[in-house]
Write a structure and sequence with these properties.
By secondary structure, the protein is an alpha/beta fold. The chain has one domain: Dihydrofolate Reductase, subunit A (3-Layer(aba) Sandwich), CATH 3.40.430. Strand 7 and strand 8 form a beta hairpin. The protein starts with a strand and ends in an 11-residue tail after the last strand.
């Protein structure tokens, strides 16, 4: 069974909306698009991110993130180490309504998306990578479909915007399987689900 792996750029207060640019996602009047700009990746973190594109993967994206990617990567002339694998790989797009994807090798998933994603996990093939796609991640977490989470936590707060762990997030424990700290204070951490939350008296 292949895994579903999320990669998310977040702030200290959990905001994941529009890290890459001012026009990326202005919904809800979000005014801080491009907040990631002040925290460039150093050599250590850059090597981690670059390594993601050196292994086989397929993309599982929400419609908003898909539209952003489809409007940029097919004609990208820079960051070709990202553009090339993104353009070549198969892309599954979760959407409330059926549509005809314009980006090559893309498939729309609509209707009972949870059942279809479970079926995708059972098929032979590379792992399914989720980038951005905040609404989709909520659905995946709610249905225990996330196998691994890469979080890139940036040292700033915004006080507004779409959050990774939004209202309705289930109680669940996670185990840390990797972590690195960059020169700008950016923290890379990888987590995997670790079962139910344990409660009790601390120190008892």
């Amino acid at each position: 069974m292949r895994k579903i792996i999320t990669t998310t750029f977040v702030t200290l207060d959990g905001v994941m909306q529009a890290p890459g640019g001012p026009k990326e996602d202005t919904s809800g009047g979000f005014a801080y698009g491009g907040w990631q700009t002040g925290f460039p990746h150093d050599e250590k973190l850059g090597a981690i991110l670059g390594g993601f594109f050196s292994i086989p993967f397929e993309l599982l994206l929400g419609k908003t993130t898909y539209d952003i990617f489809a409007g940029f990567w097919p004609t990208a002339t820079t960051d070709l180490e990202v553009a090339s694998p993104f353009n070549k790989t198969k892309k599954y797009v979760v959407s409330h309504e059926s549509f005809e994807p314009s980006w090559n090798n893309s498939v729309c998933i609509t209707g009972d998306v949870v059942a279809q994603i479970k079926k995708l996990k059972e098929e032979d093939g590379p792992d399914l990578w989720v980038w951005g796609s905040g609404n989709l991640i909520q659905t995946l977490l709610e249905n225990h479909l996330v196998d691994r989470m890469h979080l890139w936590t940036h040292p700033l707060t915004l006080g507004q915007g779409k959050k990774l762990f939004a209202e309705g997030t289930r109680a669940e424990s996670f185990k840390l399987v990797d972590s690195k700290i960059g020169e700008t204070g950016l923290i890379f951490a990888t987590y995997e689900p670790a079962g139910k939350v344990k409660t009790g008296n601390v120190g008892a």
